[in-house]
Known about the structure:
The chain is mostly helical. The chain is 82% helix and 0% strand. Helix 2 crosses helix 9 (182-192).
Amino acid sequence: MKELLSLQFTIFVLLAVGFLVKKIRIVGAEGQRNITDLVIYVVLPCNIVLSFLSGMTRDTLRDCLTILLISIGIQVFGVIYGKLLYRNQPEDRKKSLTYAIICSNAGFLGNPIAEGVFGATGLMYASVYLIPQRIMMWSEGLAIFSGEKDRKGTLKKVVTHPCVIACVIGIILMLTGAELPELIKTPLSTIGRCNTALSMFVIGMILADIDLKTILDRTVVWYTVNRLVIIPLLVYGVCLLLPVSSVVRGVSVLLAAMPAGATTSMLALKYGRDPGFATRLVVFSTLCSIPAIMIWSMILK
């Protein structure tokens, strides 16, 4: 409990630092985008590779397969649930809402949270969990806005994504039991340790751009309740019925309790589908996700 409270305080401080550096304009919009790219393309892949170096056991392999199947189940449920839940919404809003149910911010916010609560094992399981979501993001998710499905393009984006490549490298290292030389492992470790701090800085910067007067909307609030409470609660209930480890259950629920992904507003803007509403969806759910994640962490730890 003491460690969890320490983690929560650390996250709060990191968010506050990110908020302040954006608010007082030490970092601008371009700098924020650069830091985001740095995390996604450099820092996080290093961290993912390291998370697989704890050694392979039968239980680890089983848990990786289990969380992969759970993630696939969540994605299938998300597609059906979103279409039913928002079938009566105006067309532009419906696209953002259904996309945001499928594609949360688990890839950016979920990884450092899973690592912080469950350590390197949590990050490893989170990396596996995110593979189906990345596939859905570039297939069904993109088709929601564009109306087109490009299977070849989807495959290319998935197999060339740095986090997916890092996951494959990590799995190979884990299965073969190969040891990285210290000359490689040490810089990987040094870079990887920046993940939580930089990720939380960026979330803090996002929060600094929020205008509370413009984001309150009944539909946005109801989406946020679904995304942060109802869906993870359903995942928690199902996992309790399944013979899964506490770490698999914890990572699955935590990553199911993530806010709308930033790509929601980006795609809405690109395809002219009410980007203002999509931005409110991302911002409000992100703002509410901070206390929600803290509560879920205390329940699951």
